[in-house]
Amino acid sequence: MSSRDVVLARVRRALADVPRASGPEETAVPRDYLREHGEHPAEDTVQLLAANLADYRAIVHDIDAAGLPGLLAHLLGERGSRSVVAPAGLPPEWLAACDLEVVPDVPETTPGELDAVDSVVTGCAVAIAETGTLVLDGSPDQGRRRITLVPDHHICVVRVPEQVVASVPQALERLAPGRPLTWISGPSATSDIELDRVEGVHGPRTLEVVLMRP
Amino acid sequence: MSVTDLGMPAFPAAAARSTRDTRLRANLRYATHTIRDKRARAVSELGDWAQLRAAGRAIKDRTLRHLDHYLERLEEAVTAAGGQVHWATDAAEANRIVTRLVRATGEREVVKVKSMATQEIGLNEALAEAGISAYETDLAELIVQLGKDRPSHILVPAIHRNRSEIRDIFRSEMGSWGRPAPDGLSDRPAELAEAARLHLREKFLRAKVGISGANFMVAETGTLVVVESEGNGRMCLTLPETLISVVGIEKVVPTWQDLEVFLQLLPRSSTAERMNPYTSMWTGTTDGDGPQTFHLVLLDNGRTDTLADTVGRQALRCIRCSACLNVCPVYERAGGHAYGSAYPGPIGAILTPQLRGTASALDASLPYASSLCGACYEVCPVAIDIPEVLVHLRERVVEGGKVTRRGVKTLIKPAKGHAAERAAMRAAGLVFDRPGVLRAGQRLAARTRKLHPRRLPGPGRAWSDTRDLPPVPAESFRDWWQRTRGGERGNGREEGGK
């Protein structure tokens, strides 16, 4: 008997008291919790996203599409970044105004090489206002998971209002489970020293979010 | 379970020692009170918390009551997505599987994400015996590992250490594990976090094998979820070529949609945040992104035995948030080490004796490590009635009875040392069944009031060490009632009526 069979047989013996013929639905799951907490017009949802991002120490910028290249050039320049990783599907005009080395997101790059890059610019899949969360799903404008992890400075562009949802349930509805997903709520942090939150451990210590309007 | 637990004293002895450690008590008091208040605020932001809690409880119950079904679906989905699924009946088998998988890569070191399951099975020790170094990368786990210490809290394993102790450990120990602590390291938390960042980065960048647990596994899609704060989890889950996840079989949830409940319950209950900084979700392997080999080791190790107990099985709903530890008056004073397992606090007091059985003195003492105040039940995001299970397990320890051990139904004998309690309860049962005997006894007790000792002799001594015996009234309630009818006939008050 394989260990698989042993464990499954133990489970079945342990559940002798459960009426199993009717299937899992014999246990009802009440879903009367809210789909979102309070109904907001789209503009308020974007404001809430900005407030919650800032509350967890992300730096939030507001810009229209035409102003984006200038803003990115300004932010990267202000930080003194000499190199930036760009995912393959990042719209080329976003970095058009920047004067620095653009490192492509290719499989050959080693983690060590990535560690030498100063910044990364990506889009996102969805942003959650109630929790101040950005979700990346590996789409072409977001790239491999590691590029938003190893460099110390991440600029994430959110297309508002269409990429913003109010709540966690609404975000899950929009996401494809088969894709590698990274949920980001503020910069890397820890509460391990006296349960006090400190920003900046292993992930990017600076997270900038650009809310880009059409 | 873990090798470090062998020979641990029973809870009362361990707690008697730890409660005298004033620094430990100060550290714990400060930390648990801080998080308690923050958690209450984070929870109060959601008007539907009670509904989310009820849903969380029901989803977990549904899963547990049809666990075989969901495990088979999970296995199918993970396999279809490119993962390999292994099953381990106990800790030793899980350790053998992981050791074999690491050896097959040819590597001698692994990086680890904080994981309760691997703590429970003593994986690091097993790997060390096989000549494989396992580096803990969670800040608190790093503090514990460098300090040759044991974890004392589910979420914050180094909660018993304050900032200056942590600085001292970093200064003296980091050098022998890798990059030493920076010169002049202070005890500012930000500087300590920076020291950990520098120390671990070289390990992340060269790691070929990562080992993790998981907070949730979605049966329908084969997706695994790791919830974390620091980014060490993301490092271990994405940079290595091979990922091995060791996960308890109770961590499965049926559907993708179910995550909408737990991703609201867990961060607020745990770190008191609207959302934790990083959550990773992966389904098998993804071409060109992250580990190209993924192994999932499904761990029983006493979980099916726990499932067989219809009262105790609710402990398997636990999502390891640690809110029950942070509100527990016993945990706050005794500290996590006294519980002698990976799972301290109220949840540990019901989980450990079920996973391991109550054969050892330590495990038999755990159901008593509680005042039954119920604060743990109140904060539990999946509504585990911890006091109910504690009382149930106390009964099992005292009375013995039918339990399942390693999948086999067995009859356990009543524990030693509870003879006086059993005799007293039997006597009480006899007396309460016979009103005449009860009346005679009460009158005798009332007449001999002056002779009553303040403390019990013999086996009752320990009980009265910390309590005064209740005084016996001059007249029993039954006699008073018979004489006065609650005030109708004499010296009582009149408003009682008929």
Automatic annotation (TrEMBL), chain A:
<protein>
    <submittedName>
        <fullName>Lactate utilization protein C</fullName>
    </submittedName>
</protein>
<dbReference type="Pfam" id="PF02589">
    <property type="entry name" value="LUD_dom"/>
</dbReference>
<dbReference type="InterPro" id="IPR037171">
    <property type="entry name" value="NagB/RpiA_transferase-like"/>
</dbReference>
<feature type="domain" description="LUD">
    <location>
        <begin position="113"/>
        <end position="212"/>
    </location>
</feature>
<dbReference type="InterPro" id="IPR024185">
    <property type="entry name" value="FTHF_cligase-like_sf"/>
</dbReference>
<dbReference type="InterPro" id="IPR003741">
    <property type="entry name" value="LUD_dom"/>
</dbReference>
UniProtKB/TrEMBL annotation, chain B:
<keyword id="KW-0408">Iron</keyword>
<keyword id="KW-0677">Repeat</keyword>
<protein>
    <submittedName>
        <fullName>Lactate utilization protein B</fullName>
    </submittedName>
</protein>
<feature type="domain" description="Lactate utilization protein B C-terminal">
    <location>
        <begin position="393"/>
        <end position="483"/>
    </location>
</feature>
<feature type="compositionally biased region" description="Basic and acidic residues">
    <location>
        <begin position="476"/>
        <end position="498"/>
    </location>
</feature>
<dbReference type="Pfam" id="PF02589">
    <property type="entry name" value="LUD_dom"/>
</dbReference>
<dbReference type="Pfam" id="PF11870">
    <property type="entry name" value="LutB_C"/>
</dbReference>
<dbReference type="InterPro" id="IPR017896">
    <property type="entry name" value="4Fe4S_Fe-S-bd"/>
</dbReference>
<dbReference type="InterPro" id="IPR024569">
    <property type="entry name" value="LutB_C"/>
</dbReference>
<keyword id="KW-0479">Metal-binding</keyword>
<dbReference type="Pfam" id="PF13183">
    <property type="entry name" value="Fer4_8"/>
</dbReference>
<feature type="domain" description="4Fe-4S ferredoxin-type">
    <location>
        <begin position="315"/>
        <end position="384"/>
    </location>
</feature>
<feature type="domain" description="LUD">
    <location>
        <begin position="71"/>
        <end position="297"/>
    </location>
</feature>
<dbReference type="InterPro" id="IPR017900">
    <property type="entry name" value="4Fe4S_Fe_S_CS"/>
</dbReference>
<feature type="region of interest" description="Disordered">
    <location>
        <begin position="450"/>
        <end position="498"/>
    </location>
</feature>
<keyword id="KW-0004">4Fe-4S</keyword>
<dbReference type="InterPro" id="IPR009051">
    <property type="entry name" value="Helical_ferredxn"/>
</dbReference>
<dbReference type="InterPro" id="IPR003741">
    <property type="entry name" value="LUD_dom"/>
</dbReference>
<keyword id="KW-0411">Iron-sulfur</keyword>
<dbReference type="InterPro" id="IPR037171">
    <property type="entry name" value="NagB/RpiA_transferase-like"/>
</dbReference>
<dbReference type="InterPro" id="IPR024185">
    <property type="entry name" value="FTHF_cligase-like_sf"/>
</dbReference>
<dbReference type="InterPro" id="IPR004452">
    <property type="entry name" value="LutB/LldF"/>
</dbReference>
